């Protein structure tokens, strides 16, 4: 759950830069948004792997029965 909360915090931190880029045409803010989106992609992938691993561990004992 910690990683999920980190994703939410990252999105919230990018909101101001997204506003500056889309509404005020600030290109530097666009660069920060792109970097943040790449970080978000990496965090999401890490969460996906963690969820899959946890799910597989939980299912493994059930298969042995």
UniProtKB/TrEMBL annotation:
InterPro entries noted in UniProt: Hc1
Family: Belongs to the histone H1/H5 family. HCT subfamily.
Free-text function comment from the UniProt entry: Might have a role analogous to that of eukaryotic histone proteins.
Name of the protein in question: Histone H1
Native source species: Pedobacter flavus
